[in-house]
């Protein structure tokens, strides 16, 4: 076997790279806007279709103190993002999170990696006792992920959002550290 064939075989047999979780940068705005406009990603969020790069950049610039915005990068490509927003005042012990993964990269552990990073920051750096989120009732994959990380359903929000021509319900879920 010549060296070209060997190199080709090695490239084909190589496992995909590991996911890097890092702080989001303004330079990620174009990639985040791209994945936010994918139909599967958007269906799980409150985002409207046709989100512009400028809208995404403005959203990314509005980070509040105590908030964390992350991206998941695989082989140089942004394939997911997640955020944690700490509440204030008498709810300073609580935080709300949201996340999403590129349509073509679901089921590869990217959501787990993002959630692990957010929970670590909440537990070990921000002393957040209660993490909250909302998830559409038809998003079974996300619900199972959240349950795997200790989130429990606390209620059902009827007609929570208008999506794809109809009103859809959402669950409110929380993870409370004792």
TrEMBL record:
InterPro entries: Acyl_CoA_acyltransferase, GNAT_dom, N-acetyltransferase. Its EC number is 2.3.1.-. It is an enzyme of class 2 (transferase). Keywords: Acyltransferase, Transferase. The keyword Acyltransferase applies. Residues 19-174 form the N-acetyltransferase domain. It holds the Pfam family Acetyltransf_1. Belongs to the acetyltransferase family. RimJ subfamily. This is Putative acetyltransferase. It comes from Rhizobium paranaense.
């Amino acid at each position: 076997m010549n060296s070209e064939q060997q190199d080709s075989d090695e490239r084909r047999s190589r496992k995909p790279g590991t996911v890097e979780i890092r702080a989001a940068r303004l330079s990620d705005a174009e990639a985040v806007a791209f994945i936010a406009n994918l139909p599967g990603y958007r269906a799980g969020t409150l985002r409207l279709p046709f989100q512009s790069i400028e809208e995404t950049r403005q959203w990314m610039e509005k980070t509040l103190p105590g908030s964390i915005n992350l991206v998941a990068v695989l082989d140089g490509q942004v394939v997911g993002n997640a955020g944690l927003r700490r509440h204030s005042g008498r709810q300073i012990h609580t935080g709300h999170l949201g996340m999403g993964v590129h349509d073509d990269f679901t089921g590869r552990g990217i959501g787990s990696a993002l959630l692990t990073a957010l929970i670590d920051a909440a537990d070990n750096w921000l002393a957040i006792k209660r993490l909250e989120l909302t998830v559409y009732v038809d998003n079974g994959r996300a619900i199972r992920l959240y349950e795997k990380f200790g989130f429990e359903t606390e209620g059902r929000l009827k007609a929570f959002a208008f999506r794809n021509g109809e009103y859809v319900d959402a669950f409110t879920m929380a993870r409370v550290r004792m």
